[in-house]
Amino acid sequence: MSDGFNTTAVIVSVLLLATTFVATYFASRRTRTSAEFWTAGGAMTGRKNGTAIAGDFLSSASLLGYAGLAYLYGMDGIVYAIFACGIFLMVMFLIAEKLRNLGRFTFADALATRLRSGPVRVVSAISTLFICIFYLLAQMVAGGVLMEALAGIDFSWGVVIAAVLMLTYVLFGGMLATTWLQIIKAVALMAVVALLVILVLIRIDPNPLNIVEQAITQSTFGDNYLATGNSFEGSWNIVSMAVAVTLSAVGLPHVLMRFFTVPDAVEARKSAIWAISLIGGFNVLIAFLGISARAALGTGGEEIAGKGGNLALPALTVWLGGDGFTGDLLLALVVAVSIATLLAVSAGLVLSASSAVAHDLWSQTFHRPEREEITVGRIAAVSLVIITVGVTLAIGGTQNVTFLATLATSTAASANFPVLIMTLLWRRMRTLGAVIGALSGLVTSLALILTGPLVWPSLAPLLSDSLSTTAPFPLAFPILLSVPAGFLGCIVGSYLSREKPDDAAFDELQVRALTGAGLDTTKTLAH
Amino acid sequence: MSTNETPVDWSRLWGAPAMLRLRRDRRSFFTIAWIIFAAAFGTLVGMAAFAPEVVAQRPIPGLSVGLILSGVYVGTVMSLGVWYVRRARHWDALAAAALRTPDTIEFEAARNV
Predict the structure, then answer these.
(1) Which of A229, A269, A276 is the closest to B78 by Cβ?
(2) In principle, which of A150, A336, B18, B76 could form an S-S bond with B40, CB 3.0–4.6 Å?
């Protein structure tokens, strides 16, 4: 959208980021022990943590992607955003409280309550690193593209700047700084979206239903703008999308880790309900803004919005603000919030991946002293970011961001979710079941994504000229098969295992999961 | 990984009357909650996937069946979340009662010293 350096956008972004660095400075003074570094000492309130979870989950893809999809495809984009409203209900019903009652720093702590610690921690660390790197790649690519398109900063420099900023939060402030970054970003995000909605109601029409009618008349789909199937090919693609989106958070390590930052299950529940409310409210408003962009920009805006529609929201912002300073300022706000968003999500991912290395592998599997965890975690964080930046610069800004994010969430739901659920609920579950379950979910989701319509058309010609570019697996989201594969792996592995049953350990897990028995109750909330 | 501080008979605790009450109460909540959620989710997915022309129909100008279903889904999710949080307060009391046994009190005391 921008042909050159956007000074207003850069100034507003710097001001917003300066606020987060002040928070990081104070957080660094309160971060000494591993518990403070990884989980903010487990002393966050449910409201703060819930806001931070919303901040963690509302990525640039949510802000720009949902609005873009609604702008381009109408109802397809709306249902995408609407299904995302149910994500944290799944987390709350299935795992939030139990995880809080059983774990300490990572979700592998909960698995190790009844399964053999070494193997489950190694396999959890592998899946965590896999998921975090792919999710991080998506954020870095989005960051580079965003800075280039909206602030006029070169893609490569945008990626490097984003990486350095994000590392600063993680290295100096740990989870406390990352949490405050998420909170500041979530509040700013909600404020900007609310402001845009108000402006839409003032500038286009005070009645939202009239705006929808205008959007229908401005769309090339006509009355079908509010029908599904404008972008999804076939009914089962819609079903798989709905399931994939709804289960997208139940296995994401950086989201699960957030439940260890509160002192008990009561605060974990409050976190989840705050997250549900904020994410639900945001998604409804952002879908409405996508529709409003169609009403305001019409078909003429499709070129500005780009092929994926990612720049529809910035284009609407410019339209709302008009030429001059107001337009520049509104666009600058969207740019600043978008940049803060990707930094916040990336920081959470790096923290989660480094905790898997430092806590699950270094301290718990290799039995090194816990006091070394923070140093090892910082080294792991720097290494991870260097690798990710290198890969991002190699693949460039043309890589499909949605594909990378899909890879991460589908892999998380397929590898981690079945293992967590079966460990919590199935008495017959064994360590071998957890290992095979996680690996079968991971491998199946990767294989189906590679042979699916998102990747196969560009992959097939590279493998052989004789291969058809029609994807062998017809669904974009592999979850309808890969999650059952994860569950099947858990069952097969457990039946093949020679590990002796330990009913007492399962009973202990059940009692502790439901009651919080054995939880450290000496923590005090940080109000 | 059993705790070493004080031996607790977890199996006995799992089958204790107070724990059974907690388990039964949770089960009854989740049975109803999952049915409600599945109905809302299934209706929206089913209509979106298999009846796109119905989803596009507009009983009122600007308000389609799909938008109404979307609103109902969001409302259902929010309501279930609030219901869960309210119901869970009762579970906290039941959990505390279930843990009020001599060996768990000793266990907790040993942990928090």
Answers:
(1) A276
(2) B76
